[in-house]
Structures are given as C-alpha cells and as structure tokens.
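name: query_chain
kind: protein
chains: 1
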Amino acid sequence: MKNILDTIGNTPIVKLQKIVPEGSGEVYVKLEAYNPTGSKKDRMALSMIEGAEKKGLLTKGMSVVEYSGGSTGAGLAFVCGIKGYQFRLITADAFGKEKIGLMKALGADLEIIKSENGKITKELISKMIARASEISNESGTFFTDQLNNYDVIEGFVPLGNEILKELGGDIDAVCDTIGTAGTLMGIAKSFKNAGSNCKIVALEPASSPIISKGIKGAHNVEGVGLGFIPALYNPEYVHNAIAIEESTARKTCRDLAIREGIFCGTSGGMNVAGALKLSKDLGPKSKVVTVACDSGLKYLSEGLFDF
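structure:
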C-alpha cells in the first residue's frame, strides 16, 4: 500500500450467530467501521474527490465544500487532508457530538446550522444543501454535491464486488437504508453487472417512509430518511422498500453489541433489523446481506446504548 487511502474498502463480512430467529435464513453483515474514519462513507468520499480530479473540476489550490451530518463529512475531511485541499463543511446541531468532533479533528472548517428541537427534517437538510451550494459559487471552490454526484454510486460498486467475492452469487437479498442511495445503487450496479438475480431492498424510517408511502417526517436516524427521494435513487434497481421503526433499529443496535459483538450506529441497526425481517420472510434456506454503516462509538453521547 502506498498510503492510508489504500486502506479504504475490503472490510470484513460476518455471519450473525445469535440474534437471527429460528426458521430464518443466514444473515451477513459487512463491517464498514473498519474503514479509516470508521464508516462506509470513506468509499464515496474518495470516489467523489478522485472523480473530480480526473474530470479537471478539482485542481491544486482549490477548496472543497459539502453538507453532511457526520460520516460523509469525516470521509471528505480525511481525503481532502491527505490530498491537500481545504475542506469547508455545513452541518447542524441535530447530529451527534462525536461526529461533529471527528470532522473538526480531521481538519474540516465547520459551519453549524441550528435545527428545530434537534430533529432531522427535510427543511433542515434543505437549509444545509442551500448553504453549501451558496459557498460553491465562490471562486476556486468545488462542491462535491453528494446527492447528485454519480461518483457516489461508483464508490460503492467495489462494495458489491467484495460481497460477491466473499459470498458467491447465491445471495437472495441485499438491503440498505436510503440516504443519498449511493450504497444500494452501487451494490445493485455491481450485482447487475455480475448477472445476479438478488433482490435489492430499500429501507427507511417508519416515521418518514417517503419511498414506500410517499410520506415525509421527522426522525433521529442520522444520514438517512432525508424527506425526499434522492436523485441517485433508481427504482428500476429496487424490488421493494420496507419501513422500519426507529425503536426497532435502536433495539437491534443494542442486541448486536451485546449478543453479536458488533458495535454500530442507528442506521446499521435499521439495516440489520431489515435484514432479519427479510430473512424470516424468505425462509431458512435464504441468504441476506446488509451493511453496518459505521461504529457505535459515534453515538455514545446520544444515549443509543443507555439501557
């Protein structure tokens, strides 16, 4: 390996041993906390920056701007720091202290927007996007624009390739919560290229089921459920969408930590809750895969693991 950027990806995958109900199939979880900043977003951060470099949109001496609740911001701060770009980040007080602290520690120049009662809403996300877009008009600034940047999808195609290499082609379903939709679309593209018939399932918070029911709402699952269908989401790739209760996701996080030794955040808990449901529905011979998006260390101040 030439440098730390070469350690992004090729994360471990594990089979759940204790929390899968009797009569269900096998459930596998990709552990994305093993990426350098502790989340899957390192993959897309590197893809967006290197994609912009290849297109001539980002050159030496320029700065980068983005909005983020934490993991994308940390990934971009990390990649920009290694490559020598200043990184300006728009975030909000609705996101965890650990995430904001990590972004700052990695060199991000932060601007924090005030939320309404600490809730993640469509209006809050829209304010963050608008401010990042405004800054992008400044000379010498490149906006990674994660919601509309197809390099995000390309960053997750290798994740799908890794899953196929690790488990083979006999996978019945893959599920992931929808934020930018990049992860699920990247996996879907990988599987489609490989000729897989695996079901691709989108997950979302039950209080904001915009894909499955067309309803937007507030919730506290960071990084997902933006209140609108993201531009990168392609319904032709997706077999169906399932809404998961936030309380179920949080309980699943605790069960994973105590019984499986997997320490992940709320979106990872939602992913595993969805995978457990799919595994039960598909039966004992099924094989379902999902992603533990990041580390539970980023959520300690939020009370996620307070019992």
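note: The chain has eight helices and ten strands.
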